[in-house]
Write a structure and sequence with these properties.
619 residues; alpha+beta; five-stranded antiparallel β-sheet; 27 helices; 16 strands; flat
């Protein structure tokens, strides 16, 4: 078995990879200063971006949760890959051939890479099968819904033959094992062994934002198929239905580039196809589950914190649509985006609407959208006689809890106005009922809890020490700015001046820990040195070092930043000279001027003055 990947190849692959490209596939990034980008953190839920990326140094850091690292760390955290798998994926992406050291440790593997490979092979197999004579029923289904061969190819639609082991045999011949295919959800286990999960069905590949196939959705076509109308891949190590959105790989680019940024959430695979072909290229769909919080996180990372962004849902105007809208409304409130509902004429979904009235009618859905809250309220009030006191009271009781759940007070007040107009009620009455519902929901539980022991209470109240840029005192500004400059632009500073500045001890303990790690780097011009220095900082100061590396350096442009970095290196040296000079002057006052010790101190003072003049002249 091959050993570990050579370190030279690890570094070469990293050098050939743009960190912003990898992260940008999952997170909407925007400029955050010189050489810095920022977006919503993919590792924790947030509404304002605190996740910073510095492509030139190949490092990212979240100022909110503290996550940081390089491109390998990012892939390992996001996709749960081993280090070896992360390197291999990026090498394949860059077209670089890796070399493995003989006799080294066997490469670690999580098995995920085989699951991705198995799904990719299955997607190709299904796609090829759609062209066979047996797939006529599948091609006819697509044609009847307005999709030609080009559309099927664009969305990767395939066909699963009706046999029990057609795909299984094909992938076994490619070197996959039965256990791998079971783990990927491509086959099922029966009393007589394993067999194809998808048989006699149209198959849609479900991909992540990077385009990797995670699983499949399949629709039955044959009367002999007594299974469900739609059958999806079961939960696997890489397929989580609460986190996947069909079409996100095709929609992400237009979502990020849109003005405004808009996501259209439809209900099925053919609806996504119809929407895209009609020109609504930001349409996506959930896969066998309702729209939830994890889906919202995926979309929020792509849309960013744009307050003008829109999420438009195409729910049916019935009880099921109302239930889905209420749930979606709860989830979208965590986003800065505005949420809407668009209902087609007579309740037609995008696929049927395109067939009946053409592409223009599908695009016209966006002209009919209404704020989601108004849609939900109208559904709640449907059937009530608002011309009577009893009807208005019932409507207020039905709608007030929805408003009470809204934490954003200005938004809640605006919706109170909407509800008051819908009911024809006094705004004050609506506000009081909403306030009453909020008070009821926020009433603390009266259940008694056992009192913790003294050691347990101490453990619970013990503060977690985390030094951040924001927590540094004002008198540490020079040391802070110098380290930020050295980590970000040290490779542009004269090595002699940089080394002289780094050899000076810093007064703040946390900044001194970072300085010592930066000073330990032998070559500050070697690519990747800054990220390595941050990794070497001892805890609990590593997060501070990451903030210094990824924080916004105050300068007009990179040229001015380099000038500032050089100036800060000189200022650190000048501060050290002044400190030594004060110490020598103090010592001289305790000595006789013409003594040997006194003359030695005076010589050293003159040397310090000369050094100071040299540094001052170079500023």
């Amino acid at each position: 078995m091959a050993g570990r990947i050579s370190q030279a190849d690890v570094e070469e692959v990293k050098a050939r990879t743009n960190l912003a490209d990898i992260i940008g596939e999952r997170v909407a990034l925007k400029s955050a200063g010189i050489g810095s980008l920022k977006g919503l953190c993919p590792f924790h839920d947030e509404r304002s971006p605190s996740f910073h990326v510095r492509p030139q140094v190949g490092f990212y850091h979240c100022f909110g949760c503290g996550e940081s690292g390089d491109v390998y760390t990012f892939l390992r955290r996001m996709d749960h890959l081993t280090f070896t798998e992360a390197v291999e994926r990026l090498a394949a992406r860059a077209g670089y051939s890796l070399h493995y050291e003989e006799g080294g440790a066997a490469p670690e593997t999580s098995g995920r890479s085989r699951l991705y490979a198995a799904n990719a092979a299955a997607a190709e197999y299904f796609r090829a099968q759609l062209l066979t004579p047996d797939a006529e029923v599948g091609r006819r289904f697509l044609g009847e819904r307005g999709f030609d061969a080009g559309a099927a190819a664009h969305f990767g639609v395939g066909f699963a033959p009706a046999g029990w082991s057609s795909m299984l045999d094909a992938l076994l011949a490619q070197g996959f094992t039965r256990d791998e295919l079971l783990a990927a959800g491509l086959v099922s286990q029966g009393q007589r062994g394993v067999y194809d999960r998808f048989r006699g069905r149209l198959v849609w590949p479900i991909r992540d934002v990077t385009g990797q196939v995670l699983g499949f959705g399949a629709r039955h076509l044959l009367e002999s198929d007594k299974g469900p109308k739609y059958l999806n891949t079961p939960e696997t190590a890489i397929y989580k239905k609460s986190q996947v959105l069909y079409g996100i790989d095709l929609a992400k680019r237009d979502i990020a580039r849109g003005e405004p940024r808009r996501v259209i959430v439809v209900e099925g695979y053919t609806d996504v196809m119809a929407a895209h072909l009609a020109g609504l290229t930001t349409a996506v769909a959930t896969c066998g589950t309702a729209f939830g919080g994890e889906h919202m996180k995926v979309l929020r990372r792509i849309m960013g914190d744009d307050t003008a962004a829109e999420i438009v849902f195409t729910f049916d105007p019935d009880a099921a649509g109302e239930k889905a809208a209420v749930r979606a409304f709860a989830e979208t409130r965590t986003s800065t985006a505005q949420s809407f509902v668009a209902v087609g004429p007579t309740g037609l979904d995008p696929c049927d609407l395109r067939l009946a009235r053409g592409d223009a009618a599908v695009r016209g859905l966006m002209d009919t959208k209404v704020p989601m809250f108004e849609f939900v309220i109208d559904q709640r009030l449907k059937g009530l006689d608002l011309g009577t006191v009893e009807g208005r009271l019932a409507g207020l009781n039905a709608a007030a809890p929805l408003l009470a759940d809204i934490k954003d007070e200005p938004l809640r007040r605006r919706y109170e106005h909407v509800l008051a107009r819908r009911l024809g009620e006094d705004l004050g009455d609506v506000h009081r009922e909403v306030a009453r519902q909020r008070a009821r929901a926020q009433k603390p539980e009266q259940a008694e809890t056992p009192r913790a022991s003294a050691p347990e209470r101490e453990a619970e109240t013990a503060p977690v020490v985390r030094v951040t840029l924001a927590s540094l005192p004002r008198d540490a500004d020079l040391e802070r700015d110098a380290l930020m400059a050295f980590l970000q632009y040290g490779h542009r500073v004269d090595p002699v001046e940089l080394r002289a500045a780094l050899d000076e001890t810093f007064s703040h303990p946390a900044l001194e820990a970072v300085r010592s790690s930066v000073a330990a780097v032998p070559d500050h011009t070697r690519p990747g040195w800054a990220a390595a220095a941050v990794d070497a900082v001892r805890e609990p100061y590593r997060s501070l070092a990451a903030e210094l590396l990824t924080g916004v350096f105050p300068a007009k442009d990179e040229a001015h930043a380099v000038v500032s970095a050089k100036d800060l290196a000189i200022r650190i040296q000048l501060r050290a000279i002044d400190r030594r000079k004060r110490e020598l002057v103090s010592a001289l006052q305790r000595l006789t001027a013409d003594s040997a010790e006194g003359r030695e101190v005076q010589v050293r003072l003159r040397e310090l003055d000369a050094a100071r003049q040299r540094l001052t002249a170079s500023q």
